[in-house]
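sry for the spam today, last one i promise. struct tokens for design, 47 residues
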């Protein structure tokens, strides 16, 4: 939850990510939250 709140704001994401990892959150769980906030990059099609 803290990662999501921070990602939606302007603050540094590393402190809440470190706290989540210290609490045994997996990298997949962290990435899922970041994907929910920022989406997935899809390169544009070149013409």
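last one done:
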């Amino acid at each position: 939850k803290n990662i999501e709140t921070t990602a939606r704001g302007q603050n540094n994401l590393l402190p809440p990510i470190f706290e989540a990892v210290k609490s045994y959150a997996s990298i997949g769980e962290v990435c899922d939250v970041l994907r929910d906030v920022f989406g997935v990059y899809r390169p544009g099609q070149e013409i």
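The first helix runs from residue 2 to 8. ok im logging off now
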